[in-house]
Recover the amino acids of this structure.
């Protein structure tokens, strides 16, 4: 199936109880996969950051041990126009589409 990037979304998500600590996956960005991106509560997009990934040592452990804070927000946001499709790492049936205009997320749809 190929690789993907990781994304944290701090904006409210429609029709779900998933919170800002949820790890999402996306293939929206060009380049090498396994980068980390972050959508802040006010809709700004930050990244890419190469996360330090650890993998489970036992069955049932999470696939990645990363946090939204691993993607800092002290630099300029990513100037992105268009949609980003992302899905829950735990359940690929939970899919969202975030629409960005001039680097700011204007809406998220299920």
């Amino acid at each position: 199936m190929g690789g993907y990037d990781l994304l944290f979304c701090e904006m409210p998500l429609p029709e779900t109880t998933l919170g800002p600590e949820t790890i999402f996956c996306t293939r929206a960005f060009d380049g090498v996969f396994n980068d980390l991106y972050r959508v802040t509560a006010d809709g700004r997009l930050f990244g890419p950051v190469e996360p330090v990934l650890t993998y489970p040592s036992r069955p049932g452990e999470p696939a990645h041990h990363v946090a939204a804070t691993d993607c800092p927000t002290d630099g300029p946001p990513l100037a992105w126009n268009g949609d980003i499709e992302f899905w829950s790492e735990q359940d690929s049936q939970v899919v969202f589409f975030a629409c960005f205009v001039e680097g700011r997320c204007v809406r998220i749809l299920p």
Remarks:
- The CA atoms of residues 80 and 103 lie 4 Å apart.
- The beta strands are 5-9, 24-26, 36-39, 45-49, 82-88, 95-101, 104-109.
